[in-house]
C-alpha cells in the first residue's frame, strides 16, 4: 500500500510543521502588524470603497522558498460578523486572482485603465480570500524550479492547508470565523481534498472552523463528468446523430482523455475526436455553448479538461483586460506582487508541470466523507457549460445521495433570482444540494452574476433557494 504509506508520512510531516507554526503563532505578538504590511492602499483605477483589501505572500515551504499569493477582500459591511470564504479556480494551474476575483465574483473588473465595480460581488455576503495555487500559478512562485515538477493533488492539498494555517497568523481575527471553501472546475479536486485534510487535522486540534463547501461545474468523477459531454453536444445541436453514436460507443471522451494523457491516442479515438472537433467547430465557446468564441482568454481556464483544444486554440479575442491589468507594474506594486522566474503574469501557468493523471482520482467519494462528517455540500452547474456539464454532476450527486441513504428534502424544483427562474435545485438529507444556474457558463458568476450571488447567499445561510419571487 505505497499510497497509504505516503499519506501517513506526509501527514506526520505536515502535522509537525503545523505544530511548529502554531507555536510561532503564539509567539508572534504583533500579528496584526503582519496583515498591515499586506494592506492594499488603492488599486490603480479603483473606485472608492469603504472596505479593506489585502494581498501578498504566505511562505508554505521555507527550504524551497515556496510562496503562495493571495488576495483578500473584506466583506462590504460588518466584516466581523460575516463568514470567511476561500475561492479556488481550477485548471489545474489557472489563477483564482485573474479568473475568480477579476472576472467572476470579486469586487472589481478591469475595464480599460480603470476598475469597475461588480455589483454582485461575493464580498457583499462574505470576506473573500482568493488563492493562486498551486505553486507556479500567477504570482505564486518557488525559488527552486524543481518545485514546479510533478505537482499533484496531494502536494497542492498540503500546500493549501499550510497556506491557510499561516494566513491565520496574519489574520488572527478570522481564525474562528465560519469558514467555507468554494471553487470551480478542477477545484472539484482541490476543495474536497483540502476540506478532508482540515477534518483530519481538526481531530487533534480544532484549527479550522469549516462550515461547508460549494463546487461549481466541478470534476468529481472524470468518466461520468466527461462522458456527459457527448449528450450535451448532441442535444445542443453541436454534433450529428451519427457522431453522437461514435462518441458514445466507438470512443467516448473519458477514453480519449485517458489515452491522451498516457501519450497514446488510438487511431479509433483519433478518428472520432476529429469528427467531434470538426462538427463542434472552434468557433463556439465550449464553456458556454451559446457564446461566440473567446470572450476573454481568462475564461478558458482548463487545458486539462479539453486537451484536444490545446492544439487548436483560436485567438479572436481582442485586448484581454485582466491580463493587461495584472501585468501593469503599478498594479503589481499596489498588490505587493512580484514576478519570480517568469516575465509575465499568465491566466494559466506555463511553468507548472502537473500530474495530469490525478484527473482520474474520484473526489465524489471524498465529498461523501465530508457529508458523513456533517459538512454541508453544494454542487452547482452553469447549465450552458459543455466542459463539465450539469447532467454529469447531477448524476454524481444523486448517486452519492443514494449511496449515503439521504432522502430528498427539497424535491427537484425551480428557484428564483428576482422574478425569473434562476435554475433548478434538489436537496438531499438537508446537507447535500444540487443546483443549476440558468444561462450560466462554466464560470457561472461571470455570465450570471446576480443569480450566482443569490445561490451563494442561500448556501452561506444554509437555506433552501428561493421558491417564489
Ligand atoms: C477562538 O475560539 C477559541 C475557543 O472557542 C477561543 O479560546 C479563542 O480565544 C478564540 N479566538 C479568537 C481570536 O476569537
Ligand atoms: C467509456 O469507454 C470506456 C473504455 O472503452 C468504457 O469502459 C466505459 O464503459 C465507457 N463509458 C461510457 C459511459 O460509455
From TrEMBL:
Alphabetic keyword roster: Carboxypeptidase, Disulfide bond, Glycoprotein, Hydrolase, Protease, Secreted, Signal
Q: Which PROSITE patterns match?
A: CARBOXYPEPT_SER_HIS, CARBOXYPEPT_SER_SER
Q: Where are the transmembrane segments?
A: none
Gene Ontology molecular function: any one: serine-type carboxypeptidase activity
Q: What is its EC number?
A: 3.4.16.-
Query: Where is the protein found, in the record's own terms?
Result: Secreted
One GO BP on record is:
proteolysis
- Record carries keyword Protease: yes
Q: Which InterPro entries match?
A: AB_hydrolase_fold (IPR029058), Peptidase_S10 (IPR001563), Ser_caboxypep_his_AS (IPR033124), Ser_caboxypep_ser_AS (IPR018202)
Q: Where is the signal peptide?
A: 1-25
Please verify whether the record's keywords include Protease: yes
Q: Which Gene3D superfamilies match?
A: 3.40.50.11320, 6.10.250.940, alpha/beta hydrolase
Q: List, alphabetically, the SUPFAM superfamilies matched.
A: alpha/beta-Hydrolases
Q: Which GO terms describe its cellular component?
A: extracellular region; vacuole
* Function statement: Probable carboxypeptidase.
Q: Which family does it belong to?
A: Belongs to the peptidase S10 family.
The name this protein carries in UniProt is Carboxypeptidase
**What organism, scientifically named, is this protein from?**
Camellia sinensis (Tea plant)
Amino acid at each position: 500500500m505505497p499510497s497509504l504509506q505516503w499519506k501517513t508520512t506526509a501527514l506526520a510531516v505536515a502535522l509537525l510543521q503545523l505544530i511548529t507554526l502554531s507555536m510561532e503563532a503564539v509567539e508572534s505578538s504583533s500579528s496584526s502588524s503582519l496583515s498591515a504590511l499586506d494592506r492594499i492602499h488603492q488599486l490603480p483605477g479603483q473606485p472608492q470603497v469603504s472596505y479593506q483589501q489585502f494581498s501578498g505572500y504566505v511562505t508554505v515551504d521555507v527550504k524551497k522558498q515556496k510562496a503562495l499569493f493571495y488576495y483578500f477582500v473584506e466583506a462590504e459591511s460588518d466584516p466581523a460578523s460575516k463568514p470567511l470564504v476561500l475561492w479556488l479556480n481550477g485548471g489545474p494551474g489557472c489563477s483564482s486572482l485573474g479568473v475568480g476575483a477579476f472576472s467572476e465574483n470579486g469586487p472589481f473588473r478591469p475595464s480599460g485603465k480603470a476598475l469597475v465595480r461588480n455589483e454582485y460581488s461575493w464580498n457583499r455576503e462574505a470576506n473573500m480570500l482568493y488563492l493562486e495555487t498551486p505553486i507556479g500559478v500567477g504570482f505564486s512562485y518557488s525559488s527552486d524550479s524543481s518545485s514546479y515538477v510533478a505537482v499533484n493533488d496531494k502536494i497542492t492539498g498540503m500546500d493549501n492547508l499550510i497556506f491557510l494555517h499561516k494566513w491565520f497568523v496574519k489574520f488572527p481575527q478570522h481564525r474562528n470565523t465560519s469558514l467555507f471553501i468554494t471553487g470551480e472546475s478542477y477545484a472539484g479536486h482541490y476543495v474536497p481534498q483540502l476540506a478532508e485534510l482540515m477534518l483530519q487535522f481538526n481531530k487533534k486540534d480544532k484549527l479550522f472552523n469549516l462550515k461547508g463547501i460549494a463546487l461549481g461545474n466541478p470534476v468529481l468523477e472524470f468518466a461520468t463528468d466527461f462522458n456527459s459531454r457527448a449528450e450535451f453536444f448532441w442535444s445542443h445541436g453541436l454534433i450529428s446523430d451519427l457522431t453522437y453514436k461514435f462518441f458514445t460507443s466507438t470512443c467516448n471522451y473519458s477514453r480519449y482523455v485517458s489515452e491522451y494523457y498516457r501519450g497514446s491516442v488510438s487511431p479509433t479515438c483519433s478518428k472520432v475526436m476529429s469528427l467531434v472537433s470538426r462538427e463542434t467547430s472552434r468557433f463556439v465557446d465550449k464553456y458556454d455553448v451559446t457564446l461566440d468564441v473567446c470572450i476573454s482568454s481568462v475564461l478558458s481556464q482548463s487545458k486539462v479538461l479539453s486537451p484536444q483544444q490545446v492544439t487548436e486554440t483560436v485567438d479572436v479575442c481582442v485586448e484581454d483586460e485582466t491580463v493587461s491589468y495584472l501585468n501593469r507594474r503599478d498594479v503589481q506594486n499596489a498588490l505587493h506582487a512580484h514576478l519570480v522566474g517568469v516575465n509575465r503574469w499568465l491566466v494559466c501557468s506555463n511553468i507548472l508541470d502537473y500530474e495530469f493523471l490525478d484527473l482520474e482520482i474520484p473526489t465524489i467519494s471524498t465529498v461523501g466523507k465530508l457529508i458523513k462528517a456533517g459538512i454541508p455540500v453544494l454542487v452547482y452547474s452553469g447549465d450552458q457549460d459543455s466542459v463539465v456539464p450539469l447532467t454529469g454532476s447531477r448524476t454524481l450527486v444523486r448517486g452519492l445521495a443514494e449511496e449515503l441513504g439521504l432522502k430528498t428534502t427539497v424535491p427537484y424544483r425551480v428557484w428564483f433570482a428576482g422574478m425569473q427562474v434562476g435554475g433548478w435545485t434538489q436537496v438531499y438529507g438537508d446537507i447535500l444540494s444540487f443546483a443549476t444556474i440558468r444561462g450560466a457558463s462554466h464560470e457561472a458568476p461571470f455570465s450570471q452574476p446576480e443569480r450566482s450571488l443569490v445561490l451563494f447567499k442561500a448556501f452561506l445561510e444554509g437555506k433552501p433557494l428561493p421558491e417564489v419571487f
